[in-house]
Write a structure and sequence with these properties.
By secondary structure, the protein is an alpha+beta fold. About 45% of the residues lie in helices and about 15% in strands. The chain has one domain: H-NOX domain, CATH 3.90.1520.10. The strands form two sheets. It has a four-stranded antiparallel beta sheet with strand order 3-4-6-5, covered by helices on one side. A hairpin with a 2-residue loop joins strand 3 and strand 4. The longest helix is centred in the middle third of the chain and has 20 residues. About 40% of the residues are buried. Bound molecules: zinc ion. Zinc ion binds next to loops. Zinc ion (ZN) binds next to loops. This is V4R domain protein. It comes from Roseivivax jejudonensis. One of its GO terms (biological process) is photosynthesis.
Length: about 210
């Protein structure tokens, strides 16, 4: 059993389970963009008869199938749809899972320390967003997800984990520094062993 002892984030997820936050934003966004019928079709293909409750743990296989179904159904719009969904998911974590007191503490500490703390908390709660993938922090600005379950059912010639990249970017922007940017530089969907996410500050901000 992994620890959730930092008090910052999320609920505990058992092995093979992920946060419903990686499903719920798509339920709303696909409805907005394509309509209920098209939304329900891809959800049904992934085994969802309805949107899961926000606090639920969801089998990672169903989450991965849902993401792959969206990729297959709307390949051109995929980056934009998943970027938008990732930001909604991160905002839900920030507002629902991080206490006001914790946010205030993070705001008032030097941002490199805040970045380290948020990364550490993410690692301790990695099942929520990486499932059975192995989440590793190489430096404060470089995260890896080995055997990323959300990428394994997708085949692409370029990094494709727009949901997770947007999730990291928005979470770090809201909790640490508004100028953070996150870019995926290698991806399991493109044949790499791990998805690699590079977190940097915008060019006119202080360097990491
Ligand atoms: Zn990836």
């Amino acid at each position: 059993m992994t620890s959730t002892s930092t008090g910052l984030f999320w609920t505990h997820h058992s092995a093979g389970m992920m946060s419903a936050a990686f499903v719920l934003p798509l339920h709303q966004i696909l409805d907005d963009v394509f309509g209920t019928g098209a939304r329900d079709k891809v959800f049904a293909e992934a085994g969802f008869s309805a949107a899961p409750p926000a606090d639920d743990s969801v089998p990672e296989g169903k989450v991965a199938r849902l993401h792959a179904s969206v990729h297959d159904a709307w390949p051109v719009l995929w980056p934009e749809l998943m970027d938008r969904a990732g930001r909604v998911a991160a905002e839900a974590v920030v507002t629902d899972r991080v206490s006001a007191r914790a946010r205030l503490l993070l705001e008032n500490m030097p941002w490199p320390v805040a970045a380290w703390l948020v990364g550490r908390s993410a690692r301790q709660n990695a099942r929520a967003f990486a499932g059975s993938g192995v989440f590793s922090i190489q430096t404060t600005g470089r995260f890896l997800v080995f055997k990323n379950p959300l990428a394994m059912q997708i085949r692409s010639d370029q990094p494709s984990c727009h949901f997770q990249a947007a999730f990291f970017e928005h979470m770090f922007q809201r909790l640490v520094h508004r100028d953070f940017e996150c870019r995926e530089t290698q991806c399991c969907a493109a044949g790499a062993d791990a998805c690699v996410f590079a977190l940097t500050l915008a060019p006119d901000a202080d360097p990491i």
